[in-house]
């Protein structure tokens, strides 16, 4: 059956319906609430089970992976347009410890994953050089980075990478929630319970009008153009610009393949620079763009999981399981041994939050944090918010550069660079006594 515009409607309509089903399950089913499962993950799992590779009840087209690539470009292209962080001076001392801790654990997950793959897995299994990237791409990176890295590896000839990347990210969410709840009970000494979470966190429904936040602000009059349409058009133009850049590069340099998401990010950055230096910048609403980007991420998660090819997962099952078990051991070790050294008395809150984003996402980390810190009094969120200003560029750069470096045959150099950076930052922080100074200021 040929792919037409109506095929796209069937795909989008089915995914939208599954997202609504996922939302209903999260709002009404206790076990789904206790596992903190996002509606997008539920939708993706249902799409996989009911789609062509499952029961065959939903007639998805064969373009789901293409949707995932486009949505990844949307998410990355929107990032520069949503930047709104502001530094508060009083948090800098604490934030530098959080930054060191976050960057170190992040780059080590990338480097050690590749090291484990090329020194252990490759000895027993026929896995590609980029196999070890699947750990950090799916866990610390999340679905967006998994899609980005998987797309780059697929363009380089490893077509199975996208499915395995989404599988890694899906398992990461499960490890995050199950492991996070277990760690909270193990180390939390009864300080927090699931029942202590606000209803909006448990059910995902914001019932109180006073708690409802606006999706954005109207910067133009609807008499000329609907305000949402303006922001949406800007995001789409940036994404389309990234696509045109890749086509231009391919025409000029046929041997060079630039990922669309990377080009979209650069275009978005250039557009943001122009807007910031012209009166037009006053009409960019970062809050609305963030909502658009967040919606694209939800659809990306659902589409990505629904597009997983079970036969590919089965073919790589043993090395993939070993890689993810290694990742679990690494994250537990960071939580148990590194966090207390870096944060002292109130290390549990920061460790549990970091466990969340290191295995799944910042949003899930916040949910886990609320279990042991219901009122968010520990300062974890503020510290991470400031630290993320300098952490975000590295996170984006890693998603773009890491697969290119490994594809080029520099896996060993990549491991050496990431491990040196991760361990080096920790040693510098300890030698300069940043953790001790932080504890002294907060005591």
Produce a short descriptive summary:
With about 450 residues, this protein is mainly α.
User: How many strands, what sense, and barrel or not for the largest sheet?
Assistant: none
- The total tally of domains equals 1
Average pLDDT: 85
Share of residues in strands: under 5%
Poorly predicted parts: 85-91
Shape call: globular
SSE run: HHHHHHHHHHHHHHHHHHH
The total beta strand count reads 0
Q: What does this protein structure show overall?
A:
- The chain is mostly helical.
- The protein has one domain (5-204, 223-442).
- The protein has helices spanning 5-28, 30-34, 39-50, 64-78, 92-124, 133-138, 142-155, 161-187, 199-203, 227-252, 260-276, 286-306, 310-315, 317-343, 347-359, 362-372, 380-407, 411-431, 434-442.
- The radius of gyration is 22 Å and the shape is globular.
- The model is unreliable at 85-91 (pLDDT under 50).
List keywords for this structure.
globular, 19 helices, 0% strand, 443 residues
Topology of this protein?
Blueprint: H1 5-28, H2 30-34, H3 39-50, H4 64-78, H5 92-124, H6 133-138, H7 142-155, H8 161-187, H9 199-203, H10 227-252, H11 260-276, H12 286-306, H13 310-315, H14 317-343, H15 347-359, H16 362-372, H17 380-407, H18 411-431, H19 434-442
Helix pairs in contact: 1-3, 1-12, 3-12, 4-7, 4-10, 4-11, 4-12, 5-14, 5-17, 5-18, 5-19, 7-8, 7-17, 8-15, 8-16, 10-11, 14-15, 15-16
């Amino acid at each position: 059956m040929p792919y037409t515009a109506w095929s796209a409607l069937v795909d989008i309509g089915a995914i939208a319906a599954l997202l609504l089903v996922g939302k209903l399950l999260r709002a009404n089913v206790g076990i789904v609430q206790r596992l903190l499962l996002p509606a997008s993950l539920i939708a993706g799992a249902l799409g996989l089970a009911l789609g062509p590779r499952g029961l065959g009840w939903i007639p998805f087209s064969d373009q789901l992976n293409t949707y995932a690539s486009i949505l990844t470009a949307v998410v990355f292209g929107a990032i520069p347009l949503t930047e709104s962080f502001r530094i508060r001076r009083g948090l800098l001392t604490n934030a530098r410890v959080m930054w060191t801790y976050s960057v170190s654990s992040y780059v080590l997950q990338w480097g050690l994953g590749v090291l484990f793959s090329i020194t252990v897995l490759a000895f027993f299994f026929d896995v590609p050089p980029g196999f070890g990237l699947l750990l950090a791409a799916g866990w610390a990176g999340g679905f967006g980075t998994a899609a980005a890295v998987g797309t780059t590896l697929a363009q380089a000839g490893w077509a199975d990478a996208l499915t395995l990347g989404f599988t890694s990210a899906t398992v990461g969410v499960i490890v995050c929630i199950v492991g996070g709840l277990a760690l909270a009970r193990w180390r939390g000494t009864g300080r927090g319970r699931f029942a202590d979470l606000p209803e909006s966190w448990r059910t995902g429904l914001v019932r109180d009008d006073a708690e409802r936040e606006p999706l954005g602000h109207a910067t133009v009059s609807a008499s000329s153009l609907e305000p949402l349409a303006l922001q949406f058009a800007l995001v789409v133009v940036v994404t389309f610009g990234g696509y045109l850049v890749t086509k231009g590069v391919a025409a000029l340099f046929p041997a060079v393949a630039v990922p669309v998401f990377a080009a979209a990010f650069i275009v978005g950055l250039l557009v943001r620079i122009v807007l910031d230096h012209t009166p037009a910048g006053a009409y960019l609403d970062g809050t609305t763009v963030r909502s658009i980007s967040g919606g694209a991420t939800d659809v990306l998660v659902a589409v990505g999981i629904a597009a997983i090819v079970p036969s590919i997962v089965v073919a790589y099952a043993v090395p993939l399981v070993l890689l993810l078990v290694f990742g679990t051991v690494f994250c537990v070790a960071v939580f148990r041994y590194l966090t207390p050294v870096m944060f002292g008395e109130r290390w549990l809150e920061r460790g549990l939050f970091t466990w969340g984003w290191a295995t799944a996402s910042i949003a899930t980390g916040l949910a886990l944090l609320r279990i042991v810190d219901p009122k968010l009094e520990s300062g974890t969120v503020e510290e991470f918010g400031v630290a993320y200003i300098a952490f975000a560029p590295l996170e984006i750069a890693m998603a773009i550069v890491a697969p290119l470096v490994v594809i080029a045959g520099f896996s060993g150099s990549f491991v050496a660079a990431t491990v040196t950076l991760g361990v080096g930052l920790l040693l510098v922080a300890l030698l300069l006594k940043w953790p001790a100074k932080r504890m002294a200021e907060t005591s």
